[in-house]
Design brief:
The chain is an alpha/beta fold and about 210 residues long. It has helices at about 15-25, 40-50, 65-75, 90-100, 115-125, 130-140, 150, 155-165, 170-175, 180-195, 200-210, and strands spanning about 5-10, 30-40, 55-60, 80-85, 105-110, 130. The protein folds into two domains: about 5-130, Response regulator (Rossmann fold, 3-Layer(aba) Sandwich); about 145-210, Arc Repressor Mutant, subunit A (Orthogonal Bundle), CATH 1.10.10.10.
């Protein structure tokens, strides 16, 4: 089977130390390759045109065009390109605005490197993925008494049903055509959203709501 090439990523952040640190984390994975770094929104748009990258990872606050303006411009010119916001700001209003403009993911700079990489993989596999802290914020705002179907994304609910069916992580990955790390990422988010400590708790919740 032919090996898939690494996804090409362009990063924009006006702080060089932060930008280089993010690039190092991304380049540590064989799934990704950073093909450009920008210190402003305007220079990021130029890099996107030059590199034809698969994903743009963009800070919100930058000189010139801010991250939201970059997101809007990229989605207008390249509708299929993935755009992920990475920021220190977990503000609900900014998050809603980014999602409304078409952001495919929303990561926080204090997320672990493993979380960021799993989020990027999930986005490239066609999912809309958010930082665990953002997920928790959403759960609290919607309330914790909803059924799993009301709290989980479509992909998370697919994973949840397979967990309820006693499928292993590997079996879930094979059935859904996603990576093992993405399954683990979804399971962590599912546990956070449903206030579950472990798989046994997930099975109890599945039984309570007749999830088969």
């Amino acid at each position: 089977m032919q090996k898939r090439e690494a996804y090409r990523i362009v990063i924009a952040d006006d702080q060089s130390l932060v930008r280089e640190g993010i690039a190092a984390i991304i380049n540590s994975s064989k799934d990704f390759a950073v093909v450009g770094q920008a210190e402003s929104g305007d220079s990021m748009l130029e890099l996107i045109d030059e590199t034809g990258c698969d994903l743009a990872l963009c800070d919100l606050v930058m000189p010139g065009m801010d991250g939201l303006k970059v997101l809007k411009a990229v989605k207008k010119k390249y509708p299929a390109m993935k755009v992920v916001i990475i920021t220190m700001n977990a503000d609900r209003g900014l998050f809603n605005e980014a999602v409304g403009l078409g952001a495919d993911g929303y990561a926080l700079k204090d997320d672990s490197s493993e979380t960021v990489l799993a989020l990027l993989r999930g986005v490239m596999e066609g999912n809309r993925c958010f930082s665990p802290r953002i997920q928790t914020m959403l759960v609290r705002s919607y309330g914790s008494e909803q059924s799993p179907a009301g709290l989980l994304t479509d992909r998370e609910y697919q994973v949840f049903r397979l967990v309820a069916g006693a499928f292993s992580n590997r079996e879930i990955a094979d059935r859904l055509g996603i990576s093992l790390s993405t399954v683990e990422f979804h399971k962590k988010n599912i546990k956070d959203k449903l206030n579950a400590r472990n798989t046994a708790d997930l099975l109890n919740i599945a039984h309570k709501y007749d999830v088969i």
